[in-house]
Write a structure and sequence with these properties.
The protein has 83 residues and is mainly α. The protein folds into two domains: 47 residues; 34 residues. 73% of the residues lie in helices and 0% in strands. The longest helix is centred in the N-terminal third of the chain and has 28 residues. It starts with a helix and ends with a helix.
């Protein structure tokens, strides 16, 4: 039983450290240096409010279409734009 508990503690310790390292890496990517707690708070505060997701998706779609059309990347038919 002691061996099982020791193994479990090692397992938890390893994955806790792995999780902490990933949080720091993501914080750095978000330009929060090593402050993963501030990065997490920032991520929690940047959500789209309930009921506004459809509007946000429509806005992103329009921005994407404009980007593609401005650069003449592909031809998008009117039927595709309407659907």
């Amino acid at each position: 039983m002691k061996k099982l508990i020791s193994t479990f503690i090692l397992f938890i310790t390893f994955y806790s450290n792995e999780f902490a390292n990933k949080m720091i890496r993501v914080a750095q990517e978000m330009e929060y240096v090593n402050d993963w707690k501030d990065a997490l708070e920032h991520a929690k505060d940047t959500y789209v409010p309930i009921g506004k997701q459809s509007e946000e998706i429509t806005k992103l779609l329009e921005q994407s279409l404009k980007f593609i059309e401005d650069r003449d990347l592909i031809t998008i038919t009117e039927m595709a734009k309407e659907s």
